Amino acid sequence: MPHQRHPWRGRESPRRRARRDARPARVPLIPLCLASGDPRGVVRMQSQDGLILIDKDAGMTSFDVVRRVRRLAGTRKVGHTGTLDPDATGLMGVVLGRCTKLANFLTLDEKVYAFEMVLGSATDTEDASGEVIEVAGWEHVTREAFEEAMAGFLGTIQQVPPIYSALKVDGKRAHALARAGEEVHLEARPIEIFELELMSFEPPHVSMRVRCGSGTYVRALVRDLGKAVGSVAHTRSIRRISVGEFDLEQAYRLDELSEENFWEKVLSPARMVGSLDQVHIDDEQRRAVGFGQTILVAPELPMDAPIAVIDANDELVAIMARKESHDPQGSRLAPRRVLI
């Protein structure tokens, strides 16, 4: 019996044709460089990139803030520029979109904190939320003795971080290990204290202000100050006043923000790194940066320091660093973080 060809083989069946006709028409994809309206093909920054400054309330973790900002911004690409203790309040930088690549450059900025300490009792968390683990007399501590002890904390010093911290030990958070009852050992590390100011001295309560470098723990500073005056101490409150060039006057409480006004409050990527040295580049150099290439710029720049690279539209396109070069025409920059 001769083989009979299926009536629809090689042809489109009526059912498939009906499904195809019911689909919405495809819209041709337009490259971002053309969608930007730039006929030269220069890609422009998207709008969902930037930094928003938050005045954090007590009782919130840093991740609580990130989670709230994700809902307000309508994006999951959100991070922060440095943790703040749950019981601490004050300035917290939250980065969005491609600016999450730049968080580390703000983390390194110096910070200012106002804090209050309580002499005479130490807690396991080194703040008011913990259990008291030691008590000691404080009546002998005079203002003069306290100020003398303060002087020993200026400059570069060694500090052991609190065990209740976000630092990792063998891949696990130190605070998680401590809460599980495990013994946690953290090594001392160098920190910088630029200024330490006594605001009020009414023992056992002492209020202070510190300007310090990255990696400084105020709770550990209070712990060590207590020991330095022959007593013990814990932190009653901490408020972060500023980070680099940003301060609380530029920050918003979360209850001031809504989905409608959120993006009005976001600082541009270029504004975010305004404290860095900057160079401006043309469109040809911009294309080179986009391909991860080095570029040659005229001014002499510090070796290895992060440089903000700004295009003709005053948009941040990359963070670069000067590399070793003997080119007499200027400095050669290599990409560290590219945003285009």
TrEMBL record:
Gene3D superfamilies: Pseudouridine synthase (3.30.2350.10). One of its GO terms (biological process) is tRNA pseudouridine synthesis. The active site is at 85 (nucleophile). One of its GO terms (molecular function) is tRNA pseudouridine(55) synthase activity. InterPro entries: PsdUridine_synth_cat_dom_sf, PsdUridine_synth_N, tRNA_psdUridine_synth_TruB, TruB_C. The keyword tRNA processing applies. Residues 1-22 are annotated as: Disordered. Keywords: Isomerase, tRNA processing. Its EC number is 5.4.99.25. Residues 70-218 form the Pseudouridine synthase II N-terminal domain. It catalyses: uridine(55) in tRNA = pseudouridine(55) in tRNA. Residues 219-264 form the tRNA pseudouridylate synthase B C-terminal domain. Belongs to the pseudouridine synthase TruB family. Type 1 subfamily. Responsible for synthesis of pseudouridine from uracil-55 in the psi GC loop of transfer RNAs. NCBIfam families: TruB. This is tRNA pseudouridine synthase B. It comes from Lujinxingia vulgaris. The gene is truB.
